[in-house]
């Protein structure tokens, strides 16, 4: 089914993004599908102020995002309760979450207008910090949660539980808790596994652990993961989807679980996750 209204969001600092906003809007116009612009996108093309991301989500059937993976993460993190499908057109570098390139925008628009795209349901994270018995507000993430040592070159202690059962006290540079979507990001570079988008699990990956037998642990996505700052001497920083880190104190507990809603991420026809992995990671097989 084709969407009745498009919400368009663009990274404001990408090269030639103004021309792409205009071109995509005009292409949707050929199918009589109206396009509403987010504030930054409206400013780029010299139009009157647009809408915020949450406002755009309320008024649109599909959000078209012009940018890279970081732009999509930023949009997903600001949707609030109005989780709408996202279609990414890549104006960035790697683009695991985008499903089309800027040069192929016409093909992408035609697929959307003719209802030929399908959606991958992506699990999202809900993160809270419990400090001195008080539970803070929830932060939503699509990729991962990272607890790290910051700039200091000292290991930190992070006591970790899964569904109330003690897992380990990791002595490491930090811990990453990633969704399947985030398994191809920081977790992968830290030695974690690649997980299919709808595999229904989270992965807990220690960063440079002191104990060499510490390895990634995969848990079901319904699990409650609790990570406690258990060293009183060294600072620990919390970041969700690469956003500005927050300082945690000794005894603070970070709780991580899945959200009630999943994010529908658009996929072009005849495109598979493993095909994207092969392309992006340049897996060409053995030369032997």
List keywords for this structure.
seven-stranded antiparallel β-sheet, single chain, globular, Tumour Suppressor Smad4, 20 strands, six-stranded antiparallel β-sheet, Rossmann fold, alpha+beta, 288 residues, 7 helices
Explain this structure to me?
This protein has 288 residues and is of the alpha+beta class. The chain has 2 domains: 6-122 and 262-280, Rossmann fold; 125-258, Tumour Suppressor Smad4 (Sandwich). Helix content is 19%, strand content 34%. The strands form 4 sheets. Strands 7, 8, 9, 11, 12, 16 and 19 form a 7-stranded antiparallel sheet that branches. A 6-stranded antiparallel sheet has the order 15-14-13-10-17-18, with no helix packed on it. Helix 1 runs parallel beside helix 5 (105-113). The longest helix has 13 residues, at 17-29. The protein is globular. The termini are far apart. The mean pLDDT is 92.
CATH homologous superfamily (4th level) name of the largest domain: Probable inorganic polyphosphate/atp-NAD kinase, domain 1
Order of helices and strands: EHEHHEHEEHEEEEEEEEHEEEEEEEH
Strand content range: 25-35%
Number of strands: 20
């Amino acid at each position: 089914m084709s969407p009745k209204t498009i919400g368009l969001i663009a990274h404001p600092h990408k090269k030639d993004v103004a021309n792409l906003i205009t071109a995509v809007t005009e292409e949707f116009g050929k199918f009589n599908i109206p396009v509403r612009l987010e504030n930054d996108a409206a400013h780029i093309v010299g139009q009157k102020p647009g809408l915020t991301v949450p406002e755009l989500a309320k008024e649109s059937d599909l959000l078209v995002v012009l940018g890279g993976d970081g732009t999509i993460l930023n949009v997903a993190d600001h949707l609030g309760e109005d989780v709408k499908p996202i279609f990414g057109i890549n104006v960035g570098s790697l683009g695991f979450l985008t499903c089309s390139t800027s040069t192929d925008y016409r093909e992408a628009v035609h697929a959307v207008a003719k209802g030929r795209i399908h959606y991958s349901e992506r699990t999202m994270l809900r993160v809270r910090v419990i400090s001195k018995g008080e539970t803070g507000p929830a932060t939503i993430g699509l990729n991962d949660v990272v607890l790290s040592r910051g700039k200091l070159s000292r290991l930190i202690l992070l006591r970790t539980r899964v569904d109330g059962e003690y897992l380990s006290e990791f002595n490491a540079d930090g811990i990453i808790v990633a969704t399947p979507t985030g398994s191809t990001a920081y977790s992968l570079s830290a030695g974690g596994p690649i997980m299919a988008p709808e595999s229904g699990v989270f992965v807990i990956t220690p960063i440079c652990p002191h104990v060499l037998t510490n390895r990634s642990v995969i848990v079901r996505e319904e699990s409650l993961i609790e990570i406690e700052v258990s060293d009183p001497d060294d600072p620990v920083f919390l970041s969700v989807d690469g956003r500005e880190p927050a300082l945690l104190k000794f005894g603070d507990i970070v709780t991580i679980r899945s959200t009630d809603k999943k994010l529908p991420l658009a996929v072009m026809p005849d495109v598979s996750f493993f095909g994207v992995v092969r392309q992006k990671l340049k897996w060409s097989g053995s030369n032997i």
